[in-house]
Amino acid sequence: MLTVALLALLCASASANAIQARSSSYSGEYGGGGGKRFSHSGNQLDGPITALRVRVNNYFIVGLQVRYGTKWSDYVGGRSGDLEEIFLHPGESVIQVSGKYKRYLKKLVFVTDKGRYLAFGKDSGTSFNAVPLHPNTVLRFISGRSGSLIDAIGLHWDVYPSSCSSC
Question: What is the pTM of this model?
Fold first, then answer.
């Protein structure tokens, strides 16, 4: 009887872990093949995405920086062009990212669950549209490749953090 109870408990635990594992998904990588790899996977531990800094010039997305909770990630990309900064409202999340690219990223549009469209860059190139694979998940962090420009971007989706005292 004890063996059956333990087996049932192990199966329930394994099922719960499988459900949690299925909440994350990945979209990308969108862009060209150059640049040095970057990832903000560790930054998501600081909290949800709360702001975006995007540097653009006349043709490309030059650089990116994301605020997770109250901490900014390392800046990736080049230093030329204009820096644009947008803050999300408390509790607001990115639920879709679209854009355009050729050899480099040319346009990014972040869509939030509050209906805001946060657009950066120029409207030319090959289009992409990224959404999470699983319901009730949001953009948790980005990855990609960069040099003097943003070569490519990857988008990582998961559930919104259950608690963030600093957000």
Answer: 0.85
